[in-house]
Amino acid sequence: MKHANPNNTPIDIYFLLTPDVHLLDLAGPCQAFHEAISYGMALNLHFISDQNSLNSHQGLTLGGIQPLPSVLPHNAIVVVCASKYHEEIYRNQASERCIEWLRHTPKADTRILGICTGAFLLGLAGWLDNRQSTTHHKLTKALSRYFPAAKVLPERIFVQDGQVYTTAGVTAGIDLALQLIEEISGSRFAMEVARELVVYRRRMANDPQISKQLSYRSHISPLVHSIQDYLQARLHEKLALADIADAFRVSSRHMQREFKNATGLTIREFLVELRLEEAKCYIENGDTIEVAALKSGFPQASSLRAAWKKKYKTLPKGSAAKVDAAAESTGRYLFNRSTG
C-alpha cells in the first residue's frame, strides 16, 4: 500500500557534493529518500555543487551536477555529503565556495544534515558553534580540535541540535534519512521504507556507533550468523528454542552447541545482551523502565531490572530496589515455554 506525504507539499532535498566525496555517504541517504518517493512521499531530489562534475574518492566521476542555488525554498533539506578525511579536508577552492554558500543560503526553516565528515564542512561554515554534534567515531577528537566551540558527542549514530543534524560514518546516513522521513510522514511510513531497504533494526540517535553485539560476530559460521540475524529481527517476540531450530532445520541440541562454540554465549545469553543493549538506549533516551522493557522484548519491568542488575551490578536509573523475585526467573523469561 502506497502512502503520501501528509500535506502533499513537495519538499526539496539538496545533496551538497564536494571533491573526493564518499559514494556511500551520498548513496545511502539518497536511496532512503528515493524509496520514500516510490511509496508516495512528495520529495524533489537535487544534486548540487560548485562544479558540474567531480571525482568521488572511490574513483567514479559524477556528472550533471546542478549549480548552487541562490535561494532555497521553504522547508528545504540540505544534505552535506562526506568527503575523504585528511588534515586539509575542504581546503580546496570548490569546497570553500560551498562553505560560503552554506554560510549564507540556508533559511531558519532549512534542515541541514552533515553526513560523517560533512560535519567538518558545517563547522567551517559556522553551523556547529555552540551546537551538539557528532561524526565518525575515529574523528570526534579531530572535530573537537578543529572546532572548539562545538559540543562534540562521541558514540552517537546521529545528533540533532536545532535545525542541524550530524551523523556518524558510512551507513549512519541511512539512519538519519529514516529519522527525517519519520518526522515528515510518521513512524509507520518510515518503517515501511526501512523494510524496503532491508534495514531490520533502525538505529536511533543514542545508539552506540559500534554495537557491543559485533564482538559476537567475529566467527565464520553461516548457520550462527543466520540465527543471530533471525533473533535480531524478532527481538520483540516470544521465542522458543525448538521453533528457532525448526526454522533452520537443525536439532535444538546441534544448534545450541554450534552457537556456543561460535560466540561463547548460549542463545539465551545472547538474547539478554541484545535486549539489554536496546533497553539501555531507550532508558538513556528518556523512556521509563516499564516502557523500555516492553520496547526491548522483556515481558515486564522486573525482568529487565533483574537482567540489568546481573550484568551491570546495579539498577537502571529510576528503578525500584526490589528485584529478588524477578532474579529467580531471569533464565526463563526469554522464551514462551521451557526448553531445557
From TrEMBL:
Name by which UniProt lists this protein: Helix-turn-helix domain-containing protein
SUPFAM superfamilies in the record: Class I glutamine amidotransferase-like, Homeodomain-like
Please indicate which superkingdom the organism of origin belongs to. Bacteria
Read off the Gene3D superfamilies from this record: 3.40.50.880, Homeodomain-like
Thylakoid among keywords? no
Q: Known SMART domains for this protein?
A: HTH_ARAC
Q: Entry's Pfam families?
A: DJ-1_PfpI (PF01965), HTH_18 (PF12833)
Which range is the signal sequence, renumbered to this chain? none
Record's keyword annotation contains Transcription? yes
Instruction: Give the source species.
Output: Photobacterium halotolerans
What sections of the sequence does the record tag as coiled-coil? Answer: none
Keywords from UniProt, A to Z, are: Transcription, Transcription regulation
- MF-aspect GO terms: DNA-binding transcription factor activity; sequence-specific DNA binding
